[in-house]
Amino acid sequence: ICAVLAAVTEVIRSQGGKETETEYFAALMTTLEVVESEESQAAVAYLLNLVMKRVPAPVLKSKFSDTTKAFMDVMSKQASSDTSSALRWILSCLATLLRKQDVSVWSYPSTLQAYHGLLSFTVHSKPKVRKAAQQGVCSILRGSDFLFSDDALSHHPATVTTAKFCIKEIEQAGGEALWSFT
């Protein structure tokens, strides 16, 4: 982690940067796409998880598509990996990214696909991955920025999708759903 942070800081400084959260976000996203070892990927994902919480929402909104794609790529590569550190930090990053989006973005199929990606890890075999995904889903459903606006919705647009997913998982595990959503 320290080696990655030092390298990213050096790149930012060499380009005359002021070491802002946005600069770290950009540099770490570029690094995430080029690192190959799982250990380095985990370090970058950890640092991204820290910095993304401080990146201004307009930046995360404008980079939503590219950032989501990069996270989904890492998630698909890491899904069946023996180690899970990068995966759990990427799940947390994806949740942060989704929480910062406007309500209108939730009508796009790509947003729901990313959310379903996060949701699917709530039943992962590894406890730390499961916990990261579950915390991410909860943070999105309860803490998305648009839920705190003056004209806030009564519930998150992904609530019904989440309920349907849970019912399907219960039924597949041998339980019966006591109610259904149409």
From TrEMBL:
Domain RRP12 N-terminal HEAT: 1-142
InterPro entries: ARM-like, ARM-type_fold, HEAT_RRP12_N, RRP12
SUPFAM superfamilies: ARM repeat
Gene3D superfamilies named in the record: Leucine-rich Repeat Variant
Protein name listed in UniProt: Pre-rRNA processing protein
Originating organism: Xenoophorus captivus
